[in-house]
Amino acid sequence: MSTLIQNGIIVTASDTFEADLLVQGEQIVAIGTGLHEDGAEIINAEGCYIFPGGVDPHTHLDMPFGGTVTADDFESGTIAAAFGGTTTIIDFCLTEKKKPIKDAIQTWHEKSKGRAAIDYSFHLMIGEATEEVLAQLPSVINEEGISSFKVFMAYKNVFQADDATLFHTLKKAKELGALVMVHAENGDVIDYLTKEALANGQTEPIYHALTRPVEAEGEATGRACQLTALANSQLYVVHVSCEEAVRKIEEARRAGADIWGETCPQYLTLDIDDLRKPEFEGAKYVWSPPLREKSHQDVLWNALRTGALQTIGSDQCSFHFKGQKTLGVEDFTKIPNGGPMIEDRMSILYSEGVAEERITLNRFVDVTSTRASKLFGLYPKKGTIAIGSDADLVIFDPFAVRTISSDTHHMKVDYSAFEGKQVKGVVRTVLSKGKVIIQDQAYKGKAGDGQYIKRAKYNEQLRNQIYVEHV
Description:
Layout: E1 2-11, E2 16-24, E3 27-32, E4 41-44, E5 49-52, E6 54-59, E7 64-65, E8 68-69, H1 74-83, E9 86-93, H2 101-112, E10 119-125, H3 131-144, E11 148-152, H4 163-176, E12 179-183, H5 187-199, H6 206-210, H7 214-231, E13 234-237, H8 243-254, E14 258-263, H9 265-269, H10 295-306, E15 311-312, H11 345-354, H12 361-375, E16 393-403, E17 422-432, E18 435-439, E19 442-443
Helix pairs in contact: 4-7, 7-8
């Protein structure tokens, strides 16, 4: 099966040019002008950009948390991702202490198999760094292709690991060729401030933010950076929300540390006042780290522009407002943490970033696709438009406008964090491995189209594709 995409403007992390694209099977086999292929399906992309499919390095689908489970699973979550132009996700396997790591990985395989609409992979949570756990990590990398480990510095008595666990994980990751990820907030301080707030009768959603101050994120980020430098290892800081954390990452990178930072659309466009909305509406915006004062948005946009932060994850973790978020109506600590972001990640970045001239087109592609693909062992199979790469492609109309709403989104969750927001730029067509799965706002694929990907090690490339020269 061949597909010929004509008359579009191809945009990669480094180049922008007009050309045709020829796809055969799952891969791109030719890029050029005036291409022709007998019997090929023709897609006219005139007036549109052609982006590599988005790579979302941070999702939580079908995830248990706080006595409940996220509203979106691997089927609804990946279909929504596809509608938004994302063609690959990396989800998180949550482990349990004293239980084999492979049990957790198998659980996530069972959650995702036959359900994912797009390709996917896993990160692995490390909650303890015992000799038994560390001994399992080589097979996790070599057999499962999981080359990234996440350590939580927050959620005391639930996910939080101590500094020794983080340091041991960093040392082991350096040895094995893995990238360590951290949720960087000082969980002990947050635990103290939370108990203090509840003792004072402060139970509303706004106290979720007020008990997780920017200093707690900045301190933890700086500590993680210093431990990384001490271990001579590599670190990826997830969901950076504030200036204090950005500065710690910048300082460490300037000193030569191998450290990377991610932010999310919610921190670029929403702020702490959303948590103050009346009638418990503020609970819709409870996630961690919390939303910050609006002044932090300019810092985050500038960090994306300059390269101080390098990626955009959605941190997709959706809970219904009714019946899930409302579990915390009398106690903000019982509000499940997380929001529905997977579908609108790229739209928000294009509309607020490119259309508002905060970032360039090429930077947009880099932060939404290419950089994550490189960091997490998917490149050049994913994250770029090149001969031999997977034909994961987004045909994007930069002039069309749409309004975000829970009435029209494709997630199961019952609200949108961006309700009523008008965005410039609309996904017209999405191809996943050469197959059209989104066309004119209709889903053409099926659950199970997505495949699990075993990723390469850190700083290595995934080169299991077949390269084809087109004549």
